[in-house]
């Protein structure tokens, strides 16, 4: 990445700009703007997050926000209430309070003498979600949005549920937020006599969100609120949507480009859950230059040509050898002026010949361990690996060897007819690229709770033995399968630990299956190009402990238990400006017996540290999830230490009934 040190306008930073909400709650913001903005007002750009501007997102903030400011914007990074250096309490993700706070910050910024009255909002993941949801509320000053790695559907396409199946990330993310939000503000900003009171109040009111999310197992009003797919027409701001093929949110760019009536464009590259100016797998792109084109057009009224950009720009990845990490993915950029595109044709492939005996799907509960993380994050061993172990536990429909290469661009679908021996069952379908030597690379996958085959809102139990139809939509993809390889469609009724297992072992009889494969004419080169990545001066730190990620699968030959152990040590660093040192370690353990779905369990343990000179604090959060045939059982614990003294402890435990899950 090229570091830019000279900008058109000189930048001034405000490390703790207080923004007081109508109810008196003070939000802490870090802001950058041109030094002369008071004389020559500029548009404002807001990023509104719970992830701590002082030590959580500072790496990316330092690259991004001063860059925007140097090009004539007031760039504002706000800690949400109840997090980081802000006052108040947070009780859930995307709450009405959170969204109203963002609207109030937008109105505040637009009224400042250094602002020209136009505001944009951007963010990745949580920030990508809430900027879309805020846009749907139509605050008058909000003219444009850049949303990355986000969703339009809080129920069907987030970390909670997918295809009506319970994602283990529902529990995993609740554990993560328990750890993230239980840290104190920085005493240098909150004050030596105040930070501790704010921290203890935060700890006493900190929610463990897993039980709340588990109480909403179907698409009810809880999930509809904030899901912009409920009314795409509510979005009036211009939207630039960006995603990555190695992220969990692969479908949003297509959904927005298809449905938004306001100006909208989409870009999706080969990246994991990161901003694309420093993301991997490479190639990264000049995201900040693309963002400036968007901001300049919609916040300054400059003709930058964004309106004539293709509706959908996607990176078609070449086939590679399966690996848990790819530093880069060869491929090419393709562009579609309109999306959906008339150039993409659907090929229908019958997987089961008429008159054939039903294919019996009865997977071991450990099937899925090659699937990787829902949204890879660490530049480590989190991507899907060689699919052959999972293929061996699935029913596979291998297609003939390809005589010519094909480009798959879009969302494959599989229509199935099947019967089941239980009232509830899951089905997982994977589309794989099989190399001549048998190596199997995951292209895309989809899962469906078969009781949701007609509706996520009103599921219906299966009648054992009765044949039903269902449609499984796989995630969007853009992938070239070369000549000499062949496609494999692998079907299982378990996908651990991506989804929680059914309460009983299941046997599916698959009598018909049809693959709808979206094919684009073979691209011969790049349809579009992007500038090389740029960024402002990187964050200056001293490394105390280097980061490291590990992932191990162990099979106990005596008990049969299979255990996936994950350790993500995010390291420890000291900020060379304000001296705050912070460190973080996450540990996860997922266990299951191949024959017993009720043996499934997940455990997490997070350690967070903060220190400066003689001051130090530490939080330890642990959580566990298991189930019986009738209930999910979740528990958690917070321990908070000042130095080595335990100053706070709290336990959570709740049992939530299973409902067709």
Automatic annotation (TrEMBL):
Pfam families: Peptidase_S15 (PF02129), PepX_C (PF08530). Keywords: Hydrolase. It comes from the Bacteria. GO terms for molecular function: hydrolase activity. This is CocE/NonD family hydrolase. InterPro entries: AB_hydrolase_fold, CocE/Ser_esterase, Galactose-bd-like_sf, Xaa-Pro-like_dom, Xaa-Pro_dipept_C, Xaa-Pro_dipeptidyl-ppase/CocE. Residues 292-539 form the Xaa-Pro dipeptidyl-peptidase C-terminal domain. It comes from Mesorhizobium newzealandense. The keyword Hydrolase applies.
